[in-house]
Amino acid sequence: MDDSAAGGSEPDELAPLAIGIDIGGTKVAGGLVDDRGLITRRLRRDTPHRSTSPAVVEDVIVGVVGELMSGLAMERVTAIGIGAAGFVAADRATVAFAPHLSWRDEPLRDRLAARLTKPVFIDNDANAAAWAEWRFGAARGETHLVMITLGTGIGGGLLWNGEVIRGKHGIAGEFGHMQVVPEGHRCECGNRGCWEQYASGNALVREARALVAARSPIAMDMLARIDGDAANLTGPLITEAAREGDMMAVELLSEIGTWLGVGMANLAAALDPGMFVVGGGVSAAGELLLDPARTAFARTLTGRGYRPEAGIVAASLGNDAGLIGAADLARASVDP
């Protein structure tokens, strides 16, 4: 069993549990979570990349839930929360659109509920991450929070005075699909120039592969690291290289961070939050990403010098935030 203490104490072996499932563009991560945000068991399975069948992804989810519940007394699990990387409709049952998966008006909650023995609740994965950071992580005590999740794309969540702000149609917070460069890079959502095309894991890898393909002088160390094969480039590898001082990797993370800061300055102009929490896989780069983001934010913020600036901090729950938040939101739904 893999015990992980989000709140800093040992898990209670008899405490009621909820299951949190975090579905991204490349993985399904799941965990058993208690009411203190502690993960007592976890699993991760790959998402079939660009599968044309929603049922395939659903099969993975059902399999993960089954494994997590194996060996437990059934009554210990009260609910199952799903954090989905897509536009979750206001009914919190339907994934209207998922740019990185094949869901289109997918009745995900009902399909899963028909196959599982516990109540199922659906929310956007970034909403779940924002909730987790507010309840158990870096944003405890903050009244006006914007969560930015940097992974395959960019997700976002808003939490105002303890309430997740979902918008009239349920899809508020899709910041990654704000247009920042007219006629810019084509995005999987169908538009061009979306923010996530310049500040995400996909953007990081795309730019690295372009430099490697061009055999840029700053790419020579990276070429040796990947044995000359651009297909070996991944976001975690680039981050690791940057930590070791690789010139190309440091430069690319700085560019991603700069775009991140510009986008957050635009959000601050519209929303005036007290804090931005940056999570997701790309945030593992830490200050290599956040320092240029803060610089660009301060330089781009409207009214700079005459208004309070929102704090920009790293998520403290890491990649666990989505599944912890999904579980806790599900628990709150059955036991408010």
The major beta sheet can be summarized as:
5 strands, mixed
The overall number of domains is 2
Strand content: 15-25%
CATH topology of the largest domain: Nucleotidyltransferase, domain 5
Query: Percentage of helical residues?
Result: 25-40%
In whole angstroms, the N-to-C terminal distance is 29 Å
Give the helices and strands as they follow along the chain. Answer: EEEHEEEEHEHEEEHHHHEHEH
Count of alpha and pi helical runs:
9
Strand order of the largest sheet: 3-2-1-4-8
CATH homologous superfamily assignment of the largest domain: ATPase, nucleotide binding domain
Strand tally is 13
CATH architecture of the largest domain: 2-Layer Sandwich
Secondary-structure-based class equals alpha/beta
What is the 3D form?
globular
Give the CATH class of the largest domain.
Alpha Beta
Mean pLDDT: 90
Rg calc: 20 Å
User: Low-confidence spans: pLDDT under 50, at least 5 residues?
Assistant: 1-9
Can you describe what's shown?
Strand 2 and strand 3 form a beta hairpin. The protein has 2 domains: 117 residues, 2-Layer Sandwich (Nucleotidyltransferase, domain 5), CATH 3.30.420; 174 residues, ATPase, nucleotide binding domain (Nucleotidyltransferase, domain 5, 2-Layer Sandwich), CATH 3.30.420.40. The chain is 34% helix and 20% strand. The longest helix is centred in the last third of the chain and has 25 residues. The protein is built from 9 helices and 13 strands. The strands form 3 sheets. A 5-stranded mixed beta sheet has the order 3-2-1-4-8. Strands 11-10-9-12-13 form a 5-stranded mixed beta sheet, with helices on both faces. The chain is an alpha/beta fold.
